[in-house]
Write a structure and sequence with these properties.
The protein is mainly beta. Helix content is 6%, strand content 55%. The chain has helices spanning 2-10, 54-58; strands at residues 27-35, 39-50, 62-64, 69-72, 80-93, 96-115, 128-150, 155-168, 181-190, 193-202, 220-221. It is elongated and about 70 Å long.
């Protein structure tokens, strides 16, 4: 009875939805790996499909405390499809280890909650209402670079940097994407004792998404 009530409520926005839907999801991947005495290199390609979640398809004024919006599902959403390419390289020589990785994702029918100012929120104090919709496509590029240098048998230095960029079909930024991140760690190790000093942080976020209700963030070390 409860599920039927929710379905009838959602028919306020989608009067012709049915109470069931079947989907077939496809996926495949392939990888190539080459290894030498001091380095190894790998390439990957893949394709995958994702069905909308229950919330994305049938949610009815679901409040998200993280961004302060009520969400409404969309039962007409298509499957989200992804094509990805990746490359990873590792290099090791004496006291130095370096690893670099990059990946590109092309997401078709990308599912995201878009702000709809014509609908009033049901939750008191909510920022507004987002309705799940599909963009023609979105692209994601991720890259990381890290290194470890052994200063002595007891002391090592680790550094890492990571970057993610995301764009939607119109070239606008998408929300909830971390800016440039960094990490530095000095470790001290004995047979019976370990200690480390670590610094982690993010640079100022300049690629925020006002289109999706996101504000500018600032540099925040931790």
């Amino acid at each position: 009875m409860k599920n039927q009530t929710g379905l009838e409520s959602l028919r306020i926005f989608y009067p012709f939805i049915s109470d069931s839907k079947q989907r077939i999801l496809n996926s495949f991947s392939a990888n190539y790996h080459k290894k030498t005495a001091t380095a190894d290199l790998s390439f990957g390609i893949g394709y995958g499909e994702r069905a909308p979640s229950v919330s994305e398809g049938y949610g009815f004024f679901l409040f998200n405390s993280f961004d302060g919006y009520d969400y409404i599902g969309n039962p007409a959403l298509k499957k989200e499809k992804s094509v990805d390419f990746s490359v990873k390289a590792n290099f090791e020589k004496k006291k130095l280890k370096i690893s670099a990785e990059a990946a590109y994702f092309h997401l078709m029918d990308y599912i995201i909650g878009e702000i709809n100012p014509a609908i009033s929120p049901m939750t008191i104090g909510a920022n507004g209402v987002r309705v799940y919709n599909s963009l023609a496509y979105a692209s994601i590029f991720k890259s990381t670079l890290n290194s470890t240098y052994t200063l002595s048998d007891q002391i090592s230095l680790y550094t890492a940097i990571g970057l993610i960029t995301v764009r939607e079909v119109n070239g606008a930024n998408l929300p909830l994407i971390s800016p440039l991140s960094y990490q530095i760690q000095v470790s001290y190790k004995l047979p019976t004792f370990n200690s480390a000093i670590q610094l982690k942080g993010n640079m100022e976020q300049t690629s925020y998404s006002p289109t999706y209700g996101e504000d500018k963030t600032h540099h925040l070390p931790s």
